[in-house]
Amino acid sequence: MDVLDCIVIGGGPAGLSASLTLGRARRKIALFDDGTNRSRVTQASHGFITQDGIKPKEFKETALKELENYPTVSYFKETVTEIIKASANERFTVKSSTGKELVAEKIVLATGIHERFSIPKIREFYGKSLFSCPFCDGWEQRDKPLVVIAEKEEHILHLTKMVYNWSQDLVALTNGNPLSKEGQLELKKHDIKIITEKIKDLIGNDGYLEKIELENGESIKRSGGFVAPSYYRPNHFAEALGCELDEEGIVKTDHVGRTSQKNVYIAGETERSKPASIMISAAKGNKTAVSVITDIIMERF
């Protein structure tokens, strides 16, 4: 079996960027992607210079088309189910859902993160009228009647203050969780309505929010807003490969993609389990790929 230089797992901005840089360095690599990256629900991605407003599907299709220019890059639209490391981390066998097995010297984990919502109904509106990042979607929601939904006080205060930059017509909902008097005063001085009643339902059509029903019978008309999800890694490859994590679950690295495990690298949101823009994720993918290439060159020179 041929041994590849590197296998990249995850075809979001980080994995695509890493694959491009590796391909341009004449490295023989494979990119695996199962199409579950969280941007798939996004209508348009913003803030990436020269690509502002691009549809994530178009972004990905363009990136994959660019990879075709590099004959040493192979792309597999498959789910990786297992990564088996040989002793001393000199070889890794990657198994996919179709039974494919490939071997590589190095692994880049770029599997990203997923959102978790305490209110499942949010998913019906997420990406169309409810968002998590005001820097990404605040401009399109400017001056609209918006809602901010968050359950922890630090999240409700931070997110509401941020969203206020784009629209002052705000209602803050804590979904049944208390907000301190100090926190309430901070928001009320800007005429922001605070509701601690539990949310009963979100009402709208085709992903576009119209109103929010509370358990006390009250109904609030809103056309969209921002939410504070929690985030998690969709798989445990980093843990299974023995990568060291800190007390917050962040994968420890040298800040350029190298983990505590030899020949195991990480890129993009996977490292911190926190969201990042496509520009930042792509930059991290490039930075990690440079580390992989540098290590290969130095080891073989």
> Which ranges are low-confidence, i.e. pLDDT below 50, for 5 or more consecutive residues?
none
Separation, N- and C-terminal Cα atoms: 24 Å
Domain tally: 2
**Largest beta-sheet characterization:** 7 strands, mixed
Portion in strands: 25-35%
Q: Give the CATH superfamily of the largest domain.
A: FAD/NAD(P)-binding domain
Top CATH class of the largest domain: Alpha Beta
**Basic shape:** elongated
Residue-averaged pLDDT:
95
Number of alpha- plus pi-helical segments: 7
The fold-level CATH name of the largest domain is: FAD/NAD(P)-binding domain
Structural class: alpha/beta
Helix content: 10-25%
Notable characteristics:
FAD/NAD(P)-binding domain, alpha/beta, seven-stranded mixed β-sheet, 2 domains, 301 residues, single chain
Structure, briefly:
Helices cover 25% and strands 26% of the residues.
